[in-house]
Design a protein that fits this description.
This protein is an alpha/beta fold. 30% of the residues lie in helices and 27% in strands. The chain has nine helices and 14 strands. α1 packs across α9.
């Protein structure tokens, strides 16, 4: 087998270290820095010729810097004669710009996909894309994993009273239904009307939530407007305990204040995006690690084994 090597940008070094620990390998040596004018400089500090290389980089805040780091890392590895390069992107930024929903707007998720392939990536490994069809934007293989097993394992150990899984909008119904089926609990849906970017208005709740524990499930929490309004609407309808769960804790703008003030008892997220102290500001946040999930996928891809059992 080719030598397995793992490199990281600056977006999520803690997660990368956990993945290395799972795989029992050392992190690859690379210099990732910036010049005084902001240009990114990268140098691979070890031999990668003929190696099977995985580059771990979430395209989280600052999004554009982290995307450029990823592209330059891939290019540096390609020019250093790595045999195969897989871009491991736990959080794929720009995923919400996946279609033309207004006149004269770009499909930026496609632009980013083209950049990654053009830079020299042979494969992409990612977690919970905002829209599954983004896989089709790539002209290289994409392994699209879900954080469901990690979240399910946590919630199965919690004691709930007549739990109901709630989708905060129509787009998340499939995710919430699959989760509710695995937990063997009820399902409710919130009819959400969006008034503009990062602005929503809750309209109706479809399903019975009175006197029941609630799990609001989404793929990401950005400004937390959707989650906060959903929780307030559900509480008004007579729900008991409310817990929120998501894969990607973007938590931008007023998110932490909204979550702190919302009638939510716990917010469970994964470490696809590092919180960098945000969990200390909002004490409701619980962080779960997806290192073993990504590590197992990397191991199987390297060994050319089946990854399909991880797509649940």
């Amino acid at each position: 087998m080719r030598r397995l090597k793992l490199f990281s940008g600056n977006s999520n070094p803690v997660l990368t270290k956990e993945i290395c620990d799972y795989l029992g390998i050392s992190l690859g040596h690379a210099v990732v820095s910036t010049f005084s004018d902001g240009e990114i400089f990268i140098k691979i500090d070890e031999n990668v010729r003929g190696s099977d290389v995985f580059v771990v980089q979430s395209t989280s805040e600052p999004v554009n810097n982290h995307i450029m780091e990823l592209l330059i890392l891939i290019d540096a590895l390609r020019r250093a004669s790595a045999e195969k390069i897989t871009a491991v992107i736990p959080y794929y930024g720009y995923a919400r710009q996946d279609r033309k929903d207004q006149p004269r707007v770009p499909i930026t998720a496609k632009v980013v996909a083209d950049l990654i392939a053009t830079a020299g990536a042979d494969r992409v490994l990612t977690i919970d894309l905002h829209a599954g069809q983004i896989q089709g934007f790539f002209n290289i293989p994409v392994d699209h994993l879900y954080a469901t097993p990690v979240l399910l394992d946590y919630f199965r150990k919690k004691k709930f009273n007549d739990l109901v899984v709630v989708s905060p909008d129509a787009g998340g119904v499939e995710r919430a239904r699959a989760f509710a089926k695995r937990l063997n609990v009820g399902l409710a849906i919130i009819d959400k009307r969006r008034e503009g970017p990062n602005r929503t208005k809750i309209m109706n709740i479809i399903g019975d939530v009175v006197g029941r524990d609630i799990l609001i499930l989404d793929d990401m929490i950005d400004t937390a407007g959707t989650i906060a309004q959903a929780a307030a609407a559900i509480k008004t309808k007579g729900a008991a305990r409310i817990v929120a769960g998501c894969t990607h804790p973007v938590l931008s703008g007023p998110a932490l204040q909204r979550l702190s003030e919302a009638p939510i008892d716990e917010i469970v997220v994964t470490n696809t995006i590092p919180l960098k102290g945000k969990d200390q500001i909002c004490k409701k946040i619980t962080v779960l690690s997806i290192a073993s999930l990504i590590g197992e996928a990397i191991k199987r891809i390297h060994e050319e084994a089946s990854v399909s059992s991880l797509f649940v």
